[in-house]
Amino acid sequence: MIPPETTSKETTTDMSTERRQSDRTEAAAEAKESSAQDAKGHGVNIEALNAYYGDQLAVKNFNIAFPANEVTALIGPSGSGKSTVVRCINRMHEEIPGARAEGSVALDGMNVYEDGVDVTSVRRLIGMVFQKPNPFPTMSVFDNVAAGLRLTGARGINLRERVHRALRAVGLWDEVKNRLDKPGTGLSGGQQQRLCIARTVAVEPEVILMDEPCSALDPVATLKIEELIDELKDRYTIVIVTHNMQQAGRVADSTAFMLEGELIEHGPTTKIFTNPNDERTERYVTGKFG
Ligand SMILES: Nc1ncnc2c1ncn2[C@@H]1O[C@H](COP(=O)(O)OP(=O)(O)OP(=O)(O)O)[C@@H](O)[C@H]1O
Ligand SMILES: [Mg+2]
Question: Does residue 80's CB lie within 6 angstroms of at least one atom of ligand 1?
Fold first, then answer.
């Protein structure tokens, strides 16, 4: 989870150098310990997932493991079922009228499709970032980030501190600290996308799903998001859908190739791009179709 904000300890004039030194050592030890704890991420295992829109089977007998603290890219031609898969992971697929899913999506052994599982808590644990930055139009920068916390009914927390911490975590703090009460929609596209990521990380999820998070952004804003993804994987398990092969190459530890609702191949990103097992993967990654 998000490590505690590193606030400098109160320094008093009578505090000896020795004491300050020992405080620093303690703080460093604490930070180390907390980052070691944070590194214990939560993997996701999908087994025998079928996803339907009415009678149409859009995702077919899909099996995959998304390892903890890794970035997995989902690639494949348009309509191959990438968005459907990610929406099944946090049970958003079933919100579409006529859509349903069967199979198992296990977060650390807990099947999110089990009877009695609370959908709201599934969505808190498995956050989602969309293609188009979607800040709430009537809300300020601050309220946009606080919204997730308020929606999930987080109680007994210091809202202000959590919002500030999330904005720092996505590298947006310096850019927005003087306009926290201004509309979120007044930010640039790249800033809006980082704001949406801040909204997602503020609730301290375990998994972050990103469906083409950079497709509406320019190369500079894209690079910032990619750097951020690289930092976030220390704390979260990340699944990213992308059409951009270079992006998958830059951010993903492993890459999964989908075609017509099926998983064709999943392996280390370099292998998928240089020496895939399946000829269809090879044709896709070399731009011969899709
Ligand atoms: N809301 C919907 N209602 C009916 N069918 C849908 C719906 N959304 C997707 N589908 C169908 O499900 C299949 C998989 O679609 P999906 O959106 O998951 O593909 P994708 O790989 O994300 O494509 P893209 O790269 O274009 O975003 C397609 O045949 C699509 O037409
Ligand atoms: Mg899609």
Answer: yes
Domains (range + CATH), the chain: 44-135+205-285 (3.40.50.300)
Contact of 225 with 201, CB cutoff 8 Å: no
List the structure tokens of 254. Answer: 């492993």
Express each pLDDT in 202-240 by its tens digit.
Answer: 999 999 999 999 998 899 989 999 999 999 999 999 999
* Ligand 1 atom, smallest distance to 258 CA: 21
Note the pLDDT tens digit of each residue in 150-190: 877 666 778 999 999 999 999 999 999 999 999 999 999 99
Residue 15 scores a pLDDT above 70 = no
Around Cβ 179, how many Cβ atoms within 10 Å?
14
pTM of the model: 0.86
**Atom 18 (ligand 1) nearest CA:** 81
Contact 80, 259 (CB under 8 A): yes
Among protein residues, the one with the nearest Cα to ligand 1's atom 3 is: 53
- Reduced to 3 states (helix: H, G, I; strand: E, B; else coil), residue 128 is strand
Residues 6 or more apart whose Cβ sits within 8 Å of residue 155: none
